[in-house]
Design a protein that fits this description.
51% helix; 18% strand; single chain; alpha+beta; two-stranded antiparallel sheet
Amino acid sequence: MSLVKGFIALLIGALLIFDNQEEEVVLWDSDFKLQWSDFKGKPQNDRAAAVTSSGLTYRFSTTKRNNDVVSVDFVVSSYFYPNKSWYRPEVCDAIILSHEQLHFDITELFARKFRKRLQEAKFTNNVKAEVKAIYKQINIELNDFQNLYDLETNFSRNREQQLLWNKKIANALEK
């Protein structure tokens, strides 16, 4: 009975999320590549040529037996947010677009790390807080990695480093 209740709660939660989700999102897909037309936000400053807004979402359900967590099922997704992403056409080119695509690809890389950590975790009855803690840690690591990427490529200006990062992330996504 608890399995059925958990599934129904997950289904209702998913329907509420999708029903209330007014913001346009693009789910990461290996066959999808960003185009400048996907960047629908208005430029927020003159310092950046473009900004990619992407992030991780998750949902989960638990199965309990005798008040003990038996299993945790989860869905982790990486999204691009068109209305929060923007570019300045007068300074952007294909290299900058590929730099922005890599930000989205890095988000997917960390979605995979998040899934792996959830699969390897041993959960207690405090599963909600435990999943949230893993999510917060992954987001810290994701942010640090995105910053390192921008620093090492100098926001795509260092073309040699940009090419190295392109290969590095492509190889990581193939695994």
